[in-house]
Amino acid sequence: MKFGDSKKALKKIIKLMPNCVMLDANSLKKASVDNLRIAFPPDAVIRVKEAKQVGHVLRCAHSFNIPITARGAGSSATGAAVPVSGGWILDLSLLKTISLNSYSNIVSVGVGVTTEILQKKMLKKGLFYPPDPSSKKYSTIGGNIACNAGGMRCVKYGVTRDYVLGLEGYLADGSFVQWGLPLKKNVSGLNLKDLWIGSEGTLGIVTKAHLKCIPQPEERWMAMYAFKDEKEALKMVGRLLKSGLNPSICEFLDKQSVQCAEDLSGKSIFKECPGSSILIFELDGSLDQLIQQKSLLKYQIEKIAIASVEAKSLKDAESILRIRRRCSQAMYSIADTKLNEDVVVPIEKQYDLILFTKELKNQIGLATPTFGHAGDGNLHVHIMYNRASKSEQKRAKAGILKLMRFVVSIGGSITGEHGIGLAKTPFLKIQHSKVEIEAMYALKSALDPKGILNPGKIFKPFEVWNYPKIKNKLPWDY
Description:
Blueprint: H1 6-16, E1 21-22, H2 25-30, E2 44-47, H3 52-64, E3 68-71, E4 88-91, E5 98-101, E6 106-110, H4 115-124, E7 127-128, H5 141-147, H6 154-157, E8 164-170, E9 176-180, H7 192-196, E10 205-212, E11 214-215, E12 219-227, H8 230-242, E13 249-253, H9 255-265, E14 277-285, H10 287-301, E15 307-310, H11 314-330, E16 337-344, H12 350-364, E17 370-373, E18 378-385, H13 390-409, H14 428-431, H15 434-447
Parallel strand pairs: 2-4, 3-4
Antiparallel strand pairs: 1-2, 5-6, 6-10, 7-11, 8-9, 8-10, 12-14, 12-15, 13-14, 13-17, 16-18, 17-18
């Protein structure tokens, strides 16, 4: 697809919004990369200060046929926030308004607000916004909407989509639209709101979201359990869910992930059984509910677990969660590059996936540490390799293709919360038929006929192997 003259279009934008356009090398470099760590420099970064400026930018971009890539914090794991086709980065990070309707507990939020800030502000009001991605300190509400982010509390509370009542934003030509309203009931017209959620900025640009909040749970309780192997751990998950347990968190760590975490910290998570597979549970609700749920969990799990630790305080609970959060970064002790695949499989087939990752490790000779949300089948499979090694790169590429085919063959999905972006484009045709993909693209073409919104994402196959990865640290690295 041929795009227009960015320099000519920029003159118009600079005249209209002189303090919003950044052309310096540092700004362009920062906006060129997200957590996929492959860089594509934009022609300009336009950091809007109010929502209506998004309309101005899009009208100009549409007129001159300039690619637009919306961006919040740039924490996307799949390359969804990088300008692979050049053009302009539309930086939405300053759209930070928060307005709560205390009658309905609906909060209207600018898309630049981070998940953590929203949660903390709602907590002060006795309210709870449940979507809880690991990147919540950095990731914005706009980014969460773009990929329908989930996180650890999905098992009980669901994902971002479950809390979005309405969206405000702009079409590719700069026309303002509202999909849904800050109302708890609304079936007026076609449901385009849900089409925008998870569309990665390819159908329109969201500037504000109307989100449902719920009462803050009265009590929380957390514990961590070790098992002799992954089979015992995942069998326990199925047994507990079938018995009626309703945990707010149910996280799984395979032995490879635990070994990475222990190598990073220099000590065993459980001294009596280092390198064990681990489950982390959080229960919440009223005191009576908590007593009943704890009894149900302990009756089942203490027969099988080989070690355990209960959180006695919020500090203890955070220490347990830190083990889970650090697994991802700890994997770099194995190799300098990782493929992080947020696949989803039916809950009863999670151990089948783990068996497959073990077999894959032997086949390709690369580590396959896996952890994730065992309560809803969303496990993050990693393939670790050294970028400079052509042999390892070739084996990793073959391994990821085998993984995706296996996941789909057992009724799973190639992505649960990261989206397609650039990284997963080769696998879209594994998940969807030609007819399904054509229907998706027809919708994209109807809303964005010139193809200027996040071009190159989702539909056009992209090979990450053909591009060098950056080595400098990003804000969320530790």
